[in-house]
Amino acid sequence: MSALEEARARLRVEVASAARLIAPVWPVERFIAVNPLHGLVEVGFDGAVDQARRWLRATGYPGRDDLRDALADGRIDLDDVRAVLREQLPLLCASAGAAVGAGAVAALDVLVADLVHGIDLPDPDHAPRTAAERFDAIHGTALAVTVDAEVSRWSALLTQPSHGPLGFPDRHLGAYPAWRGVAVHDRHLRRLVGRAGVAELGSLPDRADDAIDLALRRLGIKPADRAQELRGQLARVPGWAGFARWCDEWSSDQDPVQLLGLLDLLAIRLSCESLAIDRATRSVPDSAAAPVAPAPPISTARQRATSALASLGVAEPDPATVAWAGDVLSALSDGRRGQLVLAALELGHRRELLTTLGPAPAVGPAHVAVQAVFCIDGRSEGLRRHLEATGPYDTFGFAGFFAAAMRHRPLGSNESYPSAPVLLSPAVEVCETPTPGAEAVAGRRLDRQRRSAATAGTVDAMAHGPLAMFALAEAAGWVLGPAAMLKTIRPRPRARVVADGTRMAIDPADGSGFSLEDRTLVAETALRTMGLTTGFAPVVLLCGHGATTTANPHAASLDCGACGGNRGGPNARTAAAICNDPAVRSELRGRGIDIPATTWFIAGEHDTTTDEVVLYDLDRVPVEHRAAVEDLASDLAVAGERNAAERLARLPGRTRTRSARHSVQARAGDWAQTRPEWGLARNAAFIVGPRDLTRGVPLDGRVFLHSYDADADVDGTALETILTAPMVVAHWINAQYYFSTVDPDLYGAGDKTLHNPVSGIGVLVGTGGDLRGGLPRQSVMVGDRREHEPLRLLVIAQAPRTRIDEVVARNPILRHLFDGAWVRLTARDRVDGPWHHWTPGQGWQLDSDQSNRARLEEVPA
Amino acid sequence: MTRPGLTAMTRIEIVVGGDDVAAVTEVLTAVGATGYTVFAGVSGLGHHGFHQGRLLFNDRDGLRMVLAVVSHDLAEAAVAALRNLLEERPGVLFVSDTYVSRPEYFT
């Protein structure tokens, strides 16, 4: 065994351990909302927040201001605050109070007073995390930020696209070798490390892992402390570290980005830092400055206790009472206080939502002309509600990729992109091709694309790619380009119903697509999971979604998460084509799903910024269904207008235009508009159940809605599919919004107006610094006012609790999410059953409002 | 024990969560393993409860088993590092002797 190999292997484990603190950050062009503490999900929500507080200096809970705002606008009341205190501190709340004058003050009252009226103080100084921070603490220098700036600069340079202005001769060997090859010539680095350091730069090891090992030894880091040091290094640049983690664990060979892995990043950081400290050590006089003492605490326990008593009307408490109150308040550490505030907010939200849902189901229309399936995305909720109010429509919710996990190659593209939840790695490619006999029509669409590309200045006419699938192979006349470019410049359809001479080639016999077995699986999975296996309407709409915005680096954050941050139209078209495929229908009949010959599936796409819905492939709709499709298109336009008006009420900025439609279109096309729509701000819940549970209920776009029929799901497969995939994605989205709201400076991407797109992969705020993951401030706030309410996702399921228990028991990810309190869970066994709440460590608890009613009913008159 | 025509090597099998596969393959690559095999859809009963196998819409959250065959002199480094990994992460590690017919594939 070689000691070197052993060291290299051990380092890999140390890096993996350190990196668990950092969530992957996707390139912004395909922004994916992730839980920023994804790597810590197994330690539970509170444990993860605590680790993030220590390592990332992050805030993980809403504060007293959020509590006061919620009390002021009636979302919660003081009884909610008392309820969560009694639940979390039962013994203390039940303990004896203190006599004050002629009366008494209860411990519970002191706790409520401090929670509601106290002041949130900044966290005290934290212990240093890295060698440079320790050096700075002793010598009063600013090495740590200098190293951060240097490494961030190099990270941005190294991730430049390959055709960028800078050339790294050794870039093909990896980011660290590329940096090492030019580092000695860089004058910024020479200033940082000094002359002796430059010589060392020139003799750094060839490999990143060896460079890390050398630097750690140079810094004197003991073996047992190496993982901690690495964690601290990554914690100083969580944005670049997150991108590096994406490069290592989520990127694929087909990703056109310059990779920067964790080993590269750490090798560059630690090499710079160790040499910078060496240089600084030589410069520090022997009589080094004494360690800088931490600032004294702003408020003492005594002041806090006195303040709480004062808010209870106890103006001049005696010392014994103050001491008693101080003892009571010692139970309210910063972390515990945050847990209580969050619990109170969530209690109010849950009560309000369950009340809004109401006890009685609302049955759909007797005759249904169209069954419309929308993505579970909360932005579909309003459109579904307005559409159902417009005509004989029934709506369903299903993840917007409609079970067609694929790589999509748009018309005219020479590459494909994954269009599926990021939890999947699709291998099947589905191409958009000219419909035989309609090549001329397809050609006109390509002409429009080419003109758009020329306008955008991104034409790459000399790219080469396979043309065999095209009937017309005039390379000079066609745009061939990367999929990422073509999907963004595709001209917006002018009509509500589109027939542009193209189709999705779903059958390998047509050049791409799924085998018959896989096509059947797509259809069966989608239909069974949402409980649509009988009673098909004459028309079934599968409607994906996307967003149209201008000059928006975060555009992908508004597109469909179930489609990997892309528009969902291609998946909807693919799934609709599959469901119309006679061969597939024949197979489905053998599996107990009989789609009548009189039923036609049509695809659409909802633009969530403009609330326009486009329906595709009109040329394929049978004559007998065209009137219904035209009616649907008209009703979708009406529903869209109403939904836009509803949304506009929450969007800041005056609208001077005639109609809601014009207002939202103007926002979509305004390059200076930092908030074209609210996206998934205010998301708070995920409902699994039949439409009857939510029909007609105004849910304000705050809820993911997934259709589920417990009676049809005998073995729990559909429930398991929903909870282990769409629900997990919804949790990631919810967590991204949550953390971007409670700590926008650390978890969020800062102010959009200061964004500087870099390397095509992300944004900086200003001209340098860490890559900024997360959501911009404008996505969750208006000025300093929080638009997004920081609440953990509440899953509400209408399903037998025993079935839920079985599904959770065999899926560790669900055990972590529910038992770890990342996701709240409420369920009822059947439509007329009482709600029960899952409480970690205690199991199912009957909803207290219902238990109170039951107790009252038991009391004899 | 020797087997005529075959070369003795060490077989390493490790069952870990999907999120830890990258760390395992990094370790194997770092010690010089020339390859490895990753099995998805692993289900079973373990120390922390039952684990479902392949999930329909989620390739990431299930268990995986990584199998690698390395020469004896590389095995010690790999096993040491993987044991370090399992001090923090759930999983099980199996190390056994095996014989291969094409040693050049593994060195």
Give a verbal description of the structure.
Chain A has 861 residues and is of the alpha/beta class. Chain A is 44% helix and 11% strand. A 6-stranded mixed β-sheet of chain A has the order 13-12-18-19-20-21. In chain A, a hairpin with a 3-residue loop joins β20 and β21. In chain A, α6 (107-117) packs across α15 (301-311). Chain B is of the alpha+beta class and 107 residues long. In chain B, strands 2-5-1-6 form a 4-stranded antiparallel β-sheet, with helices on one face. In chain B, strands 3-4 form a two-stranded antiparallel ribbon. The longest helix of chain B has 17 residues, at 72-88. Chain B is elongated, with a radius of gyration of 15 Å. The A-B interface holds A 1-2, 5-6, 8-13, 15-17, 39, 209, 248-249, 399, 403, 405, 421, 423-425, 525, 717, 720-721, 724-726, 728, 809-813, 815 and B 17, 19-20, 22-23, 26-27, 30-32, 48-52, 55-61, 73-74, 76-78, 80-82, 84-85, 88.
Summarize the structure.
With 861 residues, chain A is an alpha/beta fold. Chain A has 31 helices and 21 strands. Chain B has 107 residues and is of the alpha+beta class.
Major sheet strand order of chain A: 13-12-18-19-20-21
Low-confidence stretches of chain A: 458-479, 856-861
Shape of chain A: globular
| Helix percentage of chain A | 40-55%
> Hey, which two chains have the biggest interface?
A-B, 38 and 33 residues
Oligomer designation:
heterodimer
Question: Helix count of chain B?
Answer: 2
> How does the helix and strand content of chain B classify structurally?
alpha+beta
Distance separating the two termini of chain B = 21 Å
Strand content of chain A: 5-15%
Nearest-angstrom radius of gyration of chain A?
A: 29 Å
**SSE order of chain B in H/E notation?**
EHEEEEHE
Mean pLDDT value of chain B? 90
Sequence stretches where pLDDT stays below 50 over 5 or more residues of chain B: none
